[in-house]
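tool_call: predict_structure(chain=1)
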Amino acid sequence: MKKTILVICSAVLMAACNNTTKKTEKDMNTLTFNEKQASCISAIACYEAQGNLGKLAEYINNGLDNGLTVSQIKEALSQLYAYTGFPRSLNALETLQKVVADRDVKGLKTELGEDASPFPSNYDALKQGTDVQTKLSTSALPKTIT
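tool_result:
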């Protein structure tokens, strides 16, 4: 059950962090992360859910080193509060702040990124969520049952 929740959280986070380029209209079905960034964002979600702040800091650093922005990570951490609880999410956001401060002291490049933009006026969150859940649940099924 925990694995299923983490998979769904990761998919939601990846969709929520979709805004990496300037566009007037969002394509809610296209991810713009590369494989390393997607791996980092999944690990960040996992370690927030576990409350493992040491590993969370490690993967936040790793994500920033691999091109994720502070805004993308902040949005991902914020989206998880409904699943992990507000205190755990707040601790994760504090960990992000500490990592950014440490990187500043060390002189490491840290891209802040843009704040999330509003959804298009015709965006249907229920439809998007249903589509994502359907893809996740059908892709996990074996192709043939013998």
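agent: The helical segments are 2-16, 35-50, 53-65, 70-79, 81-84, 86-106, 125-139. Proceeding to next step.
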